[in-house]
């Protein structure tokens, strides 16, 4: 949506879905720049009424250009999940409309409500760091929302139709293995060793099958005064083992850019204990679930690095993704008692690509 004509098409499309609101206009639009997986546009819709002008803030989420970090990318599935969650305790944004055709903006998209709140994706403002009680409450609220996701009534919401979920762990290993093989440029001994250990050590899955968010990092939660107001980025959501989500949060908890790493935050052990108290779900085999998520994250980073290497994007963030793979792999193998990991292999773009972006390509084709 980078031309005036695209904005006109979108306004016309929205007007068709809001026929009672005549003379609909988009007063402003701005791109939301954080994240890597999809493009988002914040809009203010306005229309006249008998008593004055009414406004509604919405967000348009577009499918990322192909090829992207997460393929296949299913907008309709996300829309279905978010619609099902609207009457639950999960504080996800309400969705309004879906365009699967791609005819309006060149790519499929859906429109959702704009939720008030701040997202702390890459940094903590000093004023928040100076409020330890708020930071502590934020970590508790995050765990409460993860518990709410895992306590969703699958039958009552209709989400049971997404799948059985009992083969979730095997599906995850198979999916991310296939993605690794699809993009790899050469032998990847470190990732191969981690994959072999994951398969050899695979535990019995949790006895509970739940809705799984798939990406519950601290940067996917919005907050106002310490309370969660929104949970975002449902691209990898599905039905499966809730401990996969716990393992991902456990993996990222002490990452310095996240508020969960601050002294006032719950410790990762305290967060897990609080989760168990809220859900009644025992958390076992934490090192394995952390390693599973490290493997998944590493493969996604590898995809991003290889997209850059192949010239599908000039976004420098993608060029740097491969640098994080080795630390993830080494940490996970160390948790398994393997302290002399094999070499990483080609996980970063070639030096000539990093130094000389393809001049035939311009702009960011993969950010959201």
TrEMBL record:
SUPFAM superfamilies cross-referenced by the UniProt entry: Protein kinase-like (PK-like)
Entry-linked CDD domains: ACAD10_11_N-like
Record has Transferase as a keyword: yes
Biased composition (Basic and acidic residues): 349-368
Entry keywords, A to Z: Transferase
Pfam (any one): APH
Residue span of region Disordered: 337-368
Signal peptide coordinates: none
GO MF annotation: an example: transferase activity
Residue stretches making up the Aminoglycoside phosphotransferase domain: 55-250
Descriptive protein name: Aminoglycoside phosphotransferase
The species this protein was found in: Pseudofrankia inefficax (strain DSM 45817 / CECT 9037 / DDB 130130 / EuI1c)
Lineage: Bacteria, Bacillati, Actinomycetota, Actinomycetes, Frankiales
């Amino acid at each position: 949506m980078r031309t005036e004509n695209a904005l006109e098409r979108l306004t016309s499309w929205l007007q068709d879905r809001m026929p009672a609101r005549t003379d609909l206009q988009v007063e402003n639009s701005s791109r939301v720049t954080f994240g890597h997986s999809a493009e988002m546009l914040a809009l203010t819709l306005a229309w006249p009424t008998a008593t004055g002008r009414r406004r509604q803030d919405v967000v348009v989420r577009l499918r990322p250009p192909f090829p992207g970090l997460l393929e296949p990318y299913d907008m309709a599935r996300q829309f279905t999940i978010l619609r099902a969650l609207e009457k639950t305790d999960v504080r996800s944004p309400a969705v309004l409309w879906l365009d699967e055709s791609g005819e309006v903006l060149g790519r499929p998209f859906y429109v959702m409500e704009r939720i008030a709140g701040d997202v702390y994706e890459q940094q903590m403002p000093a004023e928040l760091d100076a409020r330890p009680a708020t930071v502590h409450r934020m970590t508790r609220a995050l765990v409460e929302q993860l518990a709410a996701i895992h306590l969703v009534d699958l039958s009552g919401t209709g989400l049971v139709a997404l799948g059985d979920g009992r083969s979730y762990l095997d599906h995850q290993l198979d999916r991310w293995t296939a993605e690794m093989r699809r993009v790899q440029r050469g032998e990847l001994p470190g990732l191969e060793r981690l994959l072999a250990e994951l398969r050899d050590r695979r535990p019995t899955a949790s006895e509970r099958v739940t809705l799984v968010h798939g990406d519950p990092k601290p940067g996917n939660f919005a907050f106002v005064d310490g309370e969660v107001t929104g949970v975002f980025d449902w691209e990898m959501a599905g039905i499966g083992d809730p401990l996969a989500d716990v393992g991902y949060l456990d993996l990222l908890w002490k990452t310095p850019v996240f508020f969960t790493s601050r002294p006032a935050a719950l410790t990762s052990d305290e967060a897990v204990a609080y989760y168990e108290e809220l859900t009644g779900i025992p958390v076992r085999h934490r090192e394995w679930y952390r390693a599973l998520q490290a493997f998944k994250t590493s493969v996604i980073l590898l995809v991003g690095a290889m997209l850059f290497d192949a010239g599908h994007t000039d976004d420098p963030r993608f060029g740097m993704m491969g640098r994080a793979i080795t630390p993830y792999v080494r940490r996970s193998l160390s948790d398994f008692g393997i302290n002399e990991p094999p070499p990483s292999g080609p996980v970063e773009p070639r030096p000539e690509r990093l130094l000389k972006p393809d001049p035939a390509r311009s702009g960011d084709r993969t950010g959201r």
